[in-house]
Amino acid sequence: xxxxxxxxxxxxxxVFAIIALALIAFILQDGxxxxxxxxxxxTTIGKVNGQNIERLDFEEKLAMQxxxxxxxxxQRDQLIGSLWNQEVERIVLEQEYKKxxxxxxxxxxxxxxxxxxxxxxxxxxxxNTGEFKVAEAKQAFAQIKKSTNQEQVNMxxxxxxxxxxxxxLRNKYLSLLQQAAYVPxxxxxxxxxxxxxxxxxxxxxxxxxAIADSAVKVTDADISAYLKKHSKEYQKEEETRSISYVTxxxxxxxxxxxxxxxxxxxxxxxxxxxxxxxxxLNRAGTELPYYDSYFGKARMQQPNxxxxxxxxxxxxxxxxxxxxxxxxxxxxxxxxxxxSAKVRHILISTFNPQTNQVLRPDSxxxxxxxSIETAIKGGADFDxxxxxxxxxxxxKDKGGVYDYxxxxxxxxxxxxxxxxxxxxxxxxxxxxxxxxxxxxxxxxNFSPAYKIAYLSKPILSSGExxxxxxTAAAQFxxxxxxxxxxxxxxxxxxxxxxxxxxIKQNDFSINGIGQSRTLVRWLYENKTGAVSEPVEVGxxxxxxxxxxINPAGTLSPSEARPLVEGFVRNEKKAKQILDTxxxxxxxxxLATAIGSTVQRADSISFSTPFIPGIGSEPKxxxxxxxxxxxxxxxxxxxxxxxxxxxxxxxxxxxxxTMDAETVKQTLLQGNxxxxxxxVQSLKSAAKIKDNRFKFY
Length: 696
Known about the structure:
Layout lengths: L2 H31 L10 E5 L2 E4 H15 L6 H25 L5 H8 L20 H13 L3 H30 L5 H12 E11 L12 H10 L5 E2 L3 E10 L4 H20 L3 H8 L10 E2 L8 H5 L6 E7 L2 E25 L1 E2 L4 E2 L3 H16 L4 H8 L11 E6 L5 H9 L5 E6 L2 E25 L4 H17 L3 H10 L5 E7 L4 E2 L3 E2 L1 H8 L10 E3 L2 E11 L2 E2 L2 H24 L6 H8 L4 E7 L4 E2 L3 E2 L1 H7 L12 E2 L3 E12 L6 H26 L2 E3 L6
Antiparallel strand pairs: 1-2, 1-25, 3-20, 3-24, 4-19, 5-14, 5-18, 6-13, 7-8, 8-11, 8-13, 9-10, 12-13, 15-16, 17-18, 21-22, 23-24
Helix pairs in contact: 1-2, 1-6, 2-3, 3-6, 3-21, 6-21, 7-21, 8-18
Family: Belongs to the PpiD chaperone family.
InterPro entries: PPIase_dom_sf (IPR046357), PPIase_PpiC (IPR000297), PpiD_chaperone (IPR052029), Trigger_fact/SurA_dom_sf (IPR027304)
GO cellular component, one term: plasma membrane
């Protein structure tokens, strides 16, 4: 197989994504040409400092990420959000690159693509030596440059060239900022002095915890006043909304479960006696596809597997519950199999299942593999024939070898030959990919393996169950036209009112409810007090009422209360303590007034804002190094955990643990790390128009 084909195989999905997206673009453009589309009259998903993010390009990148990360469990809605953030960051950084004149030259790009850190290493590394095959990689790219296949050229551009350029520019930019970091001598000296400064103090302390929280009421006016003083600390970038909601259960009921069980039992005898299991299961339907081969016990992940495996060959086990299914297991066969096998093979391809493309006629492939078999029997070198003829990129460069692999990893005909034939066996096997000439090189750890068929039926809600829940939800929604009616209807129906807050415009799920883009879209298309029609989410119907619209900017008192109520309460406690408790001019007098004693804290560090036995108290640490308080009692100080009065006994310095150069390098490193936070600052300062809501 050619080197270009190897790249094509690695990234065939990109080509198909491009084709699919081209069709989407055609449809969208057609819609726009006729006066609009199903989504909007624009194809612009957003703007960043005036630069457009176009839907076609966004969808193309999204399709690529779905292919890359979908197998790892990433959901489309998660990828939309992460890709949006990536695109915003890419644009703001590219605008900075342009201002600075940063570029990647052709020679620089070539040095990276074919250098020691090449993104092509995975495709062009000798598996036996670990050597990066630079010549092969260059040859492949040279051929691609001459290619008239624009899809192939686009694939290489998107998969390798553009990411390499973006990463190189990013590295240059961050390196430029990091190298610009500077720490002056005076700052090093001050940091050394701060690190080494110590103080000894005496103090009295009345903790806030001594006053019950229930004794101090925090009103919305108190919260608002606090937010006004600390507005910059409690900002949010985008609007959020809150709802109250009730649910109506449409999950399967007892009768639904019994119906499924009866359906399964009606098929049990035929399942027991059929001689064509695959056809029977295909006709009867099953949630667990029939795997027409063997698995050892360790590879099985079925519930009740010990009981299933104790069933004799030909016997049935069940029905039993497997997740949301009723299942019957039939032991079709049992034999001794290894748990892993090692083979080498030569593949003559007939079909590519990934692209649904016929590669050569079956008859021609069969003649070629038969000729290879004959040649090997006559003494021909397997490695040489493999290198010349095999079209399996996963093993061709390793002499066709697949080192020890577990049961079930390969397609069934290949798998069965490797595990069922004795070590040393050779032969031709037909699979969906083509014809394989296989030699079994080794097998390990023989133990019982089983072929098991599963007749599995899902426990589904009946039409009556779904209709009952839907009708109840519709009746509730029709009678609940406002908050008062909503609450009254919930009480009358004995329904629990639940809440969900901080719902953003581009969210796809709601905490407590689950995936429901439909409900989120409705939420942002209506006003406070609106009641939704029933929305089906999983196995329930949801009726929601919009309880709050929280604009971007400073948090509202209701939003901020969970965050700041404790601080506000402590402020009110501090005022109460100061007004009623702290009386006196000396520490001893103050201690008597509050019913406490004078306490001592020695060797307090300026660089560590903690009071032993109390905790973090930055204000008290600051006062401890106030030279005007040496030998004097401070005014009462409202700290983080209580009210203090402090007398500084002495200030001094301990022996330094870090020399000036170490301090300088520590400060420099902190500045360089801060560079990465600077990227977020660029995004925060950018003028961003987000139109995702119109499209998703």
